[in-house]
Amino acid sequence: MRILIVEDDSLLGDGLQVGLGQAGFTVDWLRDGQEAATVLASPEAHCFAAVVLDLNLPQLSGQEVLARCRAAGNPVPVLVLTARDGVPDKLSALDGGADDYLVKPFDLDEVAARLRALIRRSAGRAAPLLVHGAIRLDPAARRVELAGLPVELSPREFALLEALLAAAGRVLTRHQLEEAAYGWNETVDSNAVEVHIHHLRRKFGSDLIRTVRGVGYTVAREASAAPAAPES
């Protein structure tokens, strides 16, 4: 899942980007409150599954970024990550639209777990695993099983499969899938999504992911049977 970090401290921001990237997130990073407010109020903001937001930012405070985000109707889950540990600060952020609040210093694994919980709840899911027929995807462990057996996936394949299973019953465009798997500064080949989808079909069967010609790709809302045998 793709997330946005808004943090002006270069060392901390770099650590978050690398660490959360290793935890399986596609991470974009902004250092400026004004730029963050502009991005989160724009139509492109829908690509983010969650936001990690500092309160002490240049140009515009994190509290104002949050206020403008909510005023624009953006429901993206926001985890405030700040050195401010006072109760008034916590109340102001949470009552102002934040979904969670964590004080620095922090444990990176806890940040990742809180983000997964926020994303899960925002999608209306209670269970931590994505289950579709014989497929079980564990976002925390970055593990996928088919009929109880582990399936090796590249990070991009995992990101696309996670996005498709989380949106089961809906069609995702190629652009939406690119947004789920690639950050701003990453080069995306013109046929990258098609190649990844081909690999997923070989591993999980050709019936799992359906092409909606001229629109995108979809996974059925419910699996009526185990996926077909993978292609040889």
UniProtKB/TrEMBL annotation:
Which UniProt keyword terms apply here? Cytoplasm, DNA-binding, Phosphoprotein, Transcription, Transcription regulation, Two-component regulatory system
Segments forming domain OmpR/PhoB-type? 127-221
* Primary location recorded for the protein, binned into one broad class: cytoplasm
Database matches in InterPro entries: CheY-like_superfamily, OmpR/PhoB-type_DNA-bd, Sig_transdc_resp-reg_receiver, WalR-like, WH-like_DNA-bd_sf
User: At which residues is 4-aspartylphosphate found?
Assistant: 54
UniProt cross-references to Gene3D superfamilies, sorted A to Z? 3.40.50.2300, 6.10.250.690, Winged helix-like DNA-binding domain superfamily/Winged helix DNA-binding domain
* Cellular compartment(s): Cytoplasm
Query: Which PROSITE patterns does this one have?
Result: OMPR_PHOB (PS51755), RESPONSE_REGULATORY (PS50110)
The UniProt record lists the Response regulatory domain at 2-119
Residue range(s) of DNA binding per entry: 127-221
Q: What is this protein called?
A: Two-component system OmpR family response regulator/two-component system response regulator QseB
What are the coiled-coil residue ranges?
A: none
Q: Output the CDD domains linked to this UniProt entry.
A: REC_OmpR_PmrA-like, trans_reg_C
Q: Which SMART domains match?
A: REC, Trans_reg_C
